[in-house]
Amino acid sequence: MLNKTEELRADFEKALGEVKDQASLEGVRVRFLGRKGGFLTEILRGLKDLNPEERRLMGAAANQLKKEFEARMAEAEQGLQEKPKTTIDLTLPGPEIKIGRLHPLTQIIRESVGFFEKIGFQAWEGPEIETEWYNFDALNTPADHPARDMQDTFYLAPGVLLRSHTSPVQVRVMEKEKPPLRIITAGRCYRRDAQDASHSPVFHQLEGLMVEKGTNFTHLKGVLTMFLEHIFPFSFKTRFTPSFFPFTEPSAEVSISCPVCQAKGCSSCGRSGFLEILGCGMVHPNVLRNVGYKQKDLTGFAFGVGIERIAMVKYGIPDIRLFYENDVRFLRQF
Ligand code: DAH
Known about the structure:
The protein has helices spanning 2-17, 22-33, 39-46, 52-82, 104-118, 132-135, 147-150, 168-176, 217-231, 285-290, 307-315, 328-331, and strands spanning 122-124, 129-131, 155-157, 160-162, 181-190, 202-211, 238-245, 248-257, 274-283, 300-306.
């Protein structure tokens, strides 16, 4: 009988030695300690057929064995938990975490709008699908005006078009709000232009408007000079030259000295020494009249800037198409 317990102990140790995981350990538990059909249970059950002396010896041996098996099972279980499933080299550098970023045009828009908000301008948005009235007529550009040619755009229906500039937002806001007014807006614009290094049928503009009694050209100059100095990180000269826009009078174009050649003239600035950045002027009285402003001595200034233009000058980008190709090798530089 006692030989039998020795045999059982040897079997148990052998089975335990072959355990590889939780499931096989459980198998050993069922086989040796299981309530139904486990070896030890069978022995304990068989005790009733033995004589008292044998029953005492055998009972004690079986109980001893049970305790021993349970202790060995617990050890084995702990061993399994301690054994690492895979080996990880914690000293290796981890994989590079790629963090996304804002598109350079979005960055310029946010930086510009943020600047104007700080000096009291309120940010507005307007629709990209516009009517001829807001895009042209209200801006003092009637149907037969030659200025419409330069801003030919995509017509969705008679009188309905994709806005060719952000200036219609001026009209929409003035219709809703009374002066004094300082607003800034930015967004997508469309023109029927063939794509090349400096043209795109879809592009972005930043537009500002200030209407308030007493506003004059020096305010326009001051605000725009401050803005340009804020947005361009290099030093430059600013140049205002007379221009024409139907919705401003007088009108001006603003250029900055070429940062590549310091205004000496190079291929970047077409040998002129200056880069044209934006259009601006004093709001034409007809525009104020069109939105229903009746105050006689009301004046204001407005401006429109190409976002791509700013980004190209700021970062020295030679081709506008790079902004729209979604090539991460380009985008990740900003
Ligand atoms: N809308 C003009 C354009 O797209 C730019 C512009 C010029 C806007 C003068 C203005 C302005 O508000 O006053 O060419």
